Amino acid sequence: GQSLEQPSEVTAVEGAIVQINCTYQTSGFYGLSWYQQHDGGAPTFLSYNALDGLEETGRFSSFLSRSDSYGYLLLQELQMKDSASYFCAAQGAGTALIFGKGTTLSVSS
Amino acid sequence: NAGVTQTPKFRILKIGQSMTLQCTQDMNHNYMYWYRQDPGMGLKLIYYSVGAGITDKGEVPNGYNVSRSTTEDFPLRLELAAPSQTSVYFCASSLTQGAPGDEQYFGPGTRLTVT
Which chain A residue's Cα is nearest to B111? Predict the structure, then answer.
């Protein structure tokens, strides 16, 4: 079967750095995506890692280790507007994306 | 570009009623998807399509049907609605599947309550 595990909640303060981990079990793994969803909104794409290593996009970075079946999303210089749910999603061979249950990030001042 | 549009935004159904959730994309994407999201949960794939005339089941297809007669439209049909189908339904599309940078674009969602 296919599954992804990520923490259900993370809290942090403005300006801090937070890391959201994701472990996956997917046959024929292609890559790992991250999506952000604000309360009541639609998910929006943040990043995609197909190869091992770190991908940086502004304040957000995403990391993948294929040998460890592990990835993380790193959010720097946290802002209140970063309070949202973050989903990792695995792409397997011949399948559509499988999403994790999401991590709710709460940023306080 | 409107992206992915969904109608209706909200709907209340009685048990046993049927309805169709509409989804349209104007990005000429081959791949389209239907997800449901229950409160506090992730997205579960209902059905997906890799192109006009081709559809396949996802994780939770029971109680739903889809069709894909055009590239743009991917309606989701609920027959004999049940309370367990109360959820938020998202339609999404992507240009490719599994390619580097592959991104799914989501519609705003349909909030469905079955009572």
Answer: A40
What tokens does B3 get? 């992206």
Strand partners, B94: B31
Give the strand pairing for B10-13 and A18-25: unpaired
Nearest to A86 by CA among A30, A41, A25: A41
Tens digits of residue pLDDT in B8-63:
999 999 999 999 999 999 999 999 999 999 988 889 999 999 999 999 999 899 99
**B99 contact partners, CB below 8 Å, separation of at least 6:** none
Contact A31, A85 (CB under 8 A): no
Q: CA–CA separation, B15 vs B72, rounded Å? A: 30
Mutate to test the interface with B, among A30, A97, A99, A106 (most CBs of B within 10 A): A97
- Could B98 and A91 be called an inter-chain contact, meaning their C-beta atoms sit closer than 8 Å? yes
Count other Cβ atoms within 10 Å, centred on residue A19. 14
CB–CB of B106 and A43 under 8 A?
A: yes
For residue range A22-32, list pLDDT tens digits in order.
999 988 888 99
Other Cβ atoms within 10 Å of A3 Cβ, number:
12
